[in-house]
Specification:
globular, binds magnesium ion, Rossmann fold, binds adenosine-5'-diphosphate, 7 strands, 5 helices, alpha/beta
Length: 161
Amino acid sequence: MENNHVPEFNITSNSPDDTISLGRKIGELAIPGDIFLLSGILGTGKTCLTQGIAYGLGINEYTLSPSFVLVRELYGRLTLYHMDLYRLENIEEIADLGLEDYLYGKGVCAIEWANKGIPLFPNEHISIEIIYRGDCKRQIILTAYGQRYLDLLDKLRRETE
Ligand SMILES: Nc1ncnc2c1ncn2[C@@H]1O[C@H](COP(=O)(O)OP(=O)(O)O)[C@@H](O)[C@H]1O
Ligand SMILES: [Mg+2]
């Protein structure tokens, strides 16, 4: 069967280090234009996972939650645009930011609280939802939308399982 891709990858993280190492693998596999849409309540590990993505791109800087700066640019093998929509009230405010240059550029976008602006983002992306499962335990659900991201998930699955 040709189309036997599984669009979802469900993984358990038992520590911040687990989450960082998943992020690192994602960062290593990233190609220009990739879009990672992160959701999950406060303190689940969206910034932590983004830190891992940054490491995987060869960036050593710390990825503070960019709550005051809405977009941080971090330079590595590819540029990482790290965004956080937490403080934005509505979709118009997000639309007004003019994120197109980032979304359709040659870098990689990691967007925290992306669930607040889904209609504004390209249909093809990977959605990463982090769910709190107690103390240091998190369930991380990655869902691929589009062939590029199905391929990414296949590779990630091979490296993780
Ligand atoms: N398995 C885990 N994965 C990620 N973070 C974890 C985990 N267990 C505990 N934590 C803690 O949860 C917090 C996550 O913070 P952060 O990444 O800033 O969350 P968010 O960006 O989603 O608000 C950190 O204090 C981190 O140490
Ligand atoms: Mg954060």
